[in-house]
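Input (structure):
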């Protein structure tokens, strides 16, 4: 799982993988049946003349190799599972469900063949404050009635730390402030998303007598 700041900047993760490899002590030689060709050629005499056909060698299954000796605790092809640590470089801008293909980090092919690829499935860790929508981020900011009337400076979280923003006087609930390039970079281009700050005005459910008298006194003028 990746955090938003890791997705924003890109990160290298060290992971443990388990894959099939040629076991220690396993050695290979040239197949005696096909002499390393991987195929068998058969010539058949017909009334039209000789017909030549090629088929996969049944002894080496087309690899052209055979096992000379096998290591301990191996399968019939001299393979066994091994665990290893590997570094996975994850580019900035990946998203939930995306798969990264890491070449030659999958299972080894039998008879000392070319390894396959490792597929890494991306999962995102939910952020407690920021909500991701594509390359944009959303944040719900709650301010008090006096702050909405008079304006204020507040500190908000971003994907890479904190940022101070100015809330203008007379701001209305539901207004959205856009912070350019404070979102997630696109994995397909150099474009970077924005951070959208949603203004919510917090209304107290209980007032002191003094506060209640204040609002009653000014309710017609506000």
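Output (sequence):
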């Amino acid at each position: 799982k990746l955090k938003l700041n890791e997705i924003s900047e890109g990160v290298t993760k060290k992971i443990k993988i388990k894959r099939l490899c040629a076991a220690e002590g396993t050695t290979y030689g040239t197949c005696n049946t096909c002499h390393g060709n991987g195929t068998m050629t058969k010539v058949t005499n017909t009334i039209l003349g000789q017909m030549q056909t090629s088929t996969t060698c049944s002894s080496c299954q087309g690899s052209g190799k055979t096992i000379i000796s096998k290591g301990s605790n191996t399968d019939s092809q001299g393979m066994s599972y091994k665990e290893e640590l590997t570094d996975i470089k994850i580019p900035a801008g990946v998203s939930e469900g995306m798969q990264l293909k890491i070449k030659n980090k999958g299972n080894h092919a039998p008879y000392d063949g070319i390894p396959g690829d490792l597929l890494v499935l991306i999962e995102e860790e939910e952020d407690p404050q920021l909500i991701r929508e594509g390359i944009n981020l959303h944040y719900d900011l709650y301010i008090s009635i006096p702050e909405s009337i008079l304006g204020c400076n507040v500190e908000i979280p971003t994907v890479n730390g904190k940022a101070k923003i100015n809330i203008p006087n007379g701001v209305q609930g539901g207004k959205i402030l856009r912070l350019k390039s404070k979102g997630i970079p696109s994995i397909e281009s150099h474009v970077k998303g924005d951070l959208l700050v949603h203004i919510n005005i917090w209304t107290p459910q209980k007032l002191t007598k003094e506060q209640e008298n204040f609002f009653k006194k000014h309710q017609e003028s506000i």
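Notes: The CA atoms of residues 153 and 166 lie 5 Å apart. The mean pLDDT is 89.
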